[in-house]
Amino acid sequence: MNTKKTSSNAGLYGKDFLLTWEKSREDLETILTVAEDLKMLRDRNISPKCFDSGLAISQFRDNSTRTRFSFASAANLLGLAVQDLDEGKSQIAHGETVRETSAMISFLSDIIGIRDDMYLGAGNTYMREVGAALDEAFADGVLPQRPGIINLQCDIDHPTQSMADLLHLKTVFGSLENLKGKKIAMTWAYSPSYGKPLSVPQGIIGLMTRMGMQVDLAYPEGYGLIPEVVELSGKQAGESGGNFRVVNSMEEAFKDADIVYPKSWAPFHVMERRTGLLRNNDHDGLKGLEKECLANNAKYKNWECTEEKMKLTKEGKALYMHCLPADISGVSCNEGEVAATVFERYRVPLYKQAGFKPYIIAAIMLTNRFKDPAGMLQNLEQGAGKRVR
Amino acid sequence: MNTKKTSSNAGLYGKDFLLTWEKSREDLETILTVAEDLKMLRDRNISPKCFDSGLAISQFRDNSTRTRFSFASAANLLGLAVQDLDEGKSQIAHGETVRETSAMISFLSDIIGIRDDMYLGAGNTYMREVGAALDEAFADGVLPQRPGIINLQCDIDHPTQSMADLLHLKTVFGSLENLKGKKIAMTWAYSPSYGKPLSVPQGIIGLMTRMGMQVDLAYPEGYGLIPEVVELSGKQAGESGGNFRVVNSMEEAFKDADIVYPKSWAPFHVMERRTGLLRNNDHDGLKGLEKECLANNAKYKNWECTEEKMKLTKEGKALYMHCLPADISGVSCNEGEVAATVFERYRVPLYKQAGFKPYIIAAIMLTNRFKDPAGMLQNLEQGAGKRVR
Amino acid sequence: MNTKKTSSNAGLYGKDFLLTWEKSREDLETILTVAEDLKMLRDRNISPKCFDSGLAISQFRDNSTRTRFSFASAANLLGLAVQDLDEGKSQIAHGETVRETSAMISFLSDIIGIRDDMYLGAGNTYMREVGAALDEAFADGVLPQRPGIINLQCDIDHPTQSMADLLHLKTVFGSLENLKGKKIAMTWAYSPSYGKPLSVPQGIIGLMTRMGMQVDLAYPEGYGLIPEVVELSGKQAGESGGNFRVVNSMEEAFKDADIVYPKSWAPFHVMERRTGLLRNNDHDGLKGLEKECLANNAKYKNWECTEEKMKLTKEGKALYMHCLPADISGVSCNEGEVAATVFERYRVPLYKQAGFKPYIIAAIMLTNRFKDPAGMLQNLEQGAGKRVR
Questions:
Q1: Which of the two residues, B385 and C169, has the higher pLDDT score?
Q2: Residues of A in contact with B348 (CB under 8 A)
Q3: Least CB-packed of B161, B275, C159, C371 within 10 Å?
Q4: Is residue A295 exposed (0-12), middle (13-18) or buried (19+ Cβ within 10 Å)?
Q5: Strand bridging mode A328-329 / A319-320
Q6: Residue C92 pLDDT > 80, yes or no?
């Protein structure tokens, strides 16, 4: 077992998982080791079921394949049944308050996973609103337990993604220790679509700057992220003995990088305008904004992760990462984020990267519900119930 | 354990739960005690799982949050997996008969929960049609078991709601015995919407008149309920040593009431016209009817549960009840069923009231499938499998 | 137990179930006996749960009631949770490749069931594309297991239907041996709809010609099936000591038949044109084709399974079969595939026929995941965990 008796769980047990930077470095390490142990148990055909019954509620306010299946897999692995809160089929349209709905769905629920990444300033706020309602309902004796909330992507962070990415890096480079001093280029890349959320790049700079890494954030002028997250990343880099800079050149970011993460996003100020238009149901405004943005994007078609750019990286062999699905030039679009040959060469590690997400989510669930995850994992190992008979 | 070896189960075991007034007083008491015991087991972290596998089918022909999650929670608590019958994704549009669909979904199913409250004269009838089909299929050897049907709201009754309400009253007042002589005001209230079902007020008068209570049904002239249910309620009140009257004044109903249940509904004769229009897909007719009804409703905006009216109740402290979501003036609408201060003062008891529903549904499931619920509960307690490891 | 230690499992274990004619006769017999044993265990209230956790993914690209519930029942019976891949709620619209999605949903999945019967030349091809992606992801170490794929209906075959049909025949006639020499009439029948898939008639002739039966395929001129499947059926009939002919008369096929299977389908060449129009989103073209086809169908309204035609069969008592729902004259349509009195007389056996499908699917799942199904079934019987406590 990787999870030690001494593993910190103070910031995890009974606490929502909304932003990685609200958790201590020790807490994050605990999640990684619990995820590794859960994977090891399952790989040895030992069932890590720790619930005999219980619901894991999912609320997806945006489309999802990977995260939806990861959440379902994690819940199932631990013994929870997934119940989806589909707002279209609920009475939420009746003008019911978040406070009320949150209590109503939680009487026998252990976990609530939420994806809400459409509106800037809204997703994370909504999760906290749900959290406050659950706190209140639990304090009032309305709920027999206070379900834990897991951020499955919001406007600010995508913590189950960045944590899965970190576990991938830990696996590839051998340890978190080995990540110290490594250079990661989180860069904008061209895509023929617009309005992609900021949560992935923000999640990456907000997490990797804590690992003593050299983090370069690169984007064309005007494609900035939420300023507070950028500022925080700089501060964290300093504290962790790493480095953080913002550059306006993909090439500069790629230079000598150990890891590259080229991915499209919409500029912060565009997301702000878009949020206003979406709120006002201004379809013409949205169309106009899309047109304007695509035209602007098109100026930066050279922000593509090509073989040439890969040659700039450390020994030309940087690890290429993506949260998937990527816009692959000539495969899923004409011109996109990454050249087909680059993507194809890294396809297997990319898929392995994605494969950590179910275990990260399961680890967040487990540490949220159990005070002593190391003891629980040991019990599970010794109990040795087979997953497949 | 509250459920006694001597608890009646004759009218529950293998019998559908469609209308509370088809069940004996003893049977209803059994459901309440089983619900209390299931809650106690879960609160003590004892898993009341009595199925190793099996399906609980849900069919929602109208939107639902509370009941959907209550049904899912109940099924999961007992070990059943929920499978939703979504008519839009099924072949029912092919002109398949209810008789056939009912058999086809039931080969390995233990419970079927149905919400069908849109059409007057249709919902309860549909449930009985499903029941007859299941009887036939079981008798014919098509089905290895005859799944039990639970009415999750129809045009006539909303028995899982009224039973949860009754368990709430039992809890607040200490016992069913203590409810004798207590006055409950089931009154119409203004809402800026129309077409709300009659099943809640009907369910309340149809159940509470059996508890020896003083039941006042109040509504503006013309807002009557299904006549048969009103008549039955009067008869039941006489038999139980209680009282039942219909008044046309909210104030009169509130006077000295121990409990008030102000809630909007559409008049019976409007629901009849609406049913006809819905059946004929008469959109213009529906729009006209809505306009007419909203105009009529607007005459009764003073039918609001205000602080002033609450002062009329017993010591000004009547228990305020609602099936939720309520139309709260100034919160979920401009003018509605209840003043925000009244609602807020009773928010915690209201949420607790709602919290009984999963256990009521689980108790109906359990008593439907097990001949000796007291013995089963004892086994579960002694087996003492942990719900959370 | 019907499943013998010596039962063949070589072609089933770890192998997808896409077409019955890709499986050996012994493999098919194994599936039948495992299905019988699973049914027997459940009927004796023994839980055949062999998974403590795990996902069974379903992907329905067309509506389904029976197969959807059969798949859910089978998964639940063995201990798997169903997770539906709803393409509308996923990121597949983003241009993601089948190769990628297949890996992404499979990290913790044991079984994938797919219905894809809309496009000729597409459904089975899609399943193989998914299969190749899973093979690759497993070989690459991306997946810890290689989930098994079950064809829940494609453009070519509907193997869970035909296998359930075969188990029904085995039960009715006493043994597979007894089917030798029996005559089955798989015939086209009139329906007021068009575009019904070819997979059922193809599945029937592709399977029953292997049982030494006399298989008559009957349809009005121009209503042919995929030529390769017809050719294969003829070859198989020769090898199994049976017989296969194509006739253009319902009466001729019914003559002395032991079993009749009258069911509508669209002609192969129409399905080819329809596939092209669907691919081009040619709504006018589709409307025109529908009109033309319905007009053509209308010429063959006499292709109805009437009491008169039933009299032509062996002693007038042939077993009537249908995959359901049937177009019943005067019940689900004015003029259809079968007379109401014929359908009604065979309703109970028809429903029993449908009732085998959950067990067939469970048997396919079990033989796909376990090397020694006989040993597993024996363990389950001896373990004797109760399904219902």
A1: C169
A2: 140-142
A3: C371
A4: exposed
A5: unpaired
A6: no
Q: How many residues does chain B have?
A: 389
Rg (alpha carbons) of chain B, rounded to whole number: 21
- The percent of chain C in helix, strand and coil, each rounded to the nearest 5, is 50, 15, 35
H helices, E strands: number in chain A: 15, 11
Please give the Cα distance from C284 to C135 (Å, whole number). 41
Non-local CB neighbours of C311 within 8 Å, separated by 6+ positions: none
Nearest by Cα to C126 from C71, C225, C59, C54 = C59
Q: Which residue has the higher pLDDT, B116 or C119?
A: B116
Q: How far apart are CA A253 and CA A246, in angstroms?
A: 9
DSSP string over B230-273 = HHHHHHHHHHHT-EEEEES-HHHHHTT-SEEEEE----HHHHHH
pLDDT of C11-59, one tens digit each?
999 999 999 999 999 999 999 999 999 999 999 999 999 999 999 999 9
Residues C29 and B56: beta-carbon distance below 8 Å: no
Residues of A in contact with B325 (CB under 8 A): 91, 94-96, 100
pLDDT at A168: 98
Using pLDDT thresholds of 50, 70 and 90, give the confidence band for residue A220.
very high
Residue closest to A110 by CA, chosen among B84, C292, B389, C242: B389
Please tell me which residue of chain C has the smallest CA distance to B80.
Answer: C76
Helix/strand/coil for A127: helix
Chain C: closest CA distance from residue A113 (Å) = 16
Joined together, the tokens standing for residue B228 give: 């048969």
CA distance linking residue C164 with residue C359, whole number of Å: 8
User: What is the C-alpha to C-alpha distance for residues B76 and B82, in angstroms, rounded to an integer?
Assistant: 8
pLDDT score at A242? 97
Average pLDDT over chain A reads: 95
- What average pLDDT does the segment A133-137 reach? 98
Chain B partners within 8 Å of C72 (Cβ): 55, 81, 83
pLDDT in tens, A42-81: 999 999 999 999 999 999 988 888 999 999 999 999 999 9
Q: What is the mean pLDDT of residues A144-160?
A: 97
Kindly state the tokens that stand for B33: 């005690």
pLDDT score at C1: 85
Of B275, B344, B343, B267, give the one whose Cα is nearest residue B299: B267
- Measure the CA–CA gap between C14 and C29, rounded to whole angstroms: 17
Contact across the interface for C85 and A65, Cβ inside 8 Å:
yes
Complete domains list, chain C, with CATH: 20-157+357-383 (3.40.50.1370), 160-354 (3.40.50.1370)
pLDDT value, residue B383:
82
Q: 3-class DSSP state for residue A357?
A: helix
What global pTM score does this model have? 0.97
Task: Say if residue A195's pLDDT is above 90.
Answer: no
User: What percentage of chain A exceeds 90 in pLDDT?
Assistant: 85
Asked if C248 and C302 touch (Cβ cutoff 8 Å), the reply is no
Per-residue pLDDT of A76-102, as tens digits, reads 999 999 999 987 766 555 567 899 999
DSSP codes, B92-154:
GGGT--HHHHHHHT-TTEEEEEEEE-SSTTTHHHHHHHHHHHHHHHHHTTS-SS-PEEEEEEE
SS3 B189: coil
Chain C CA closest to residue B95: C332
For C96, the closest chain A residue by CA position comes to: A325
Query: Is a pLDDT exceeding 90 seen at residue B298?
Result: yes
Kindly give, in sequence order, each residue whose CB lies less than 8 Å from that of residue A347, ignoring residues fewer than 6 positions away.
Answer: none
What secondary structure letter does DSSP report for A87? G
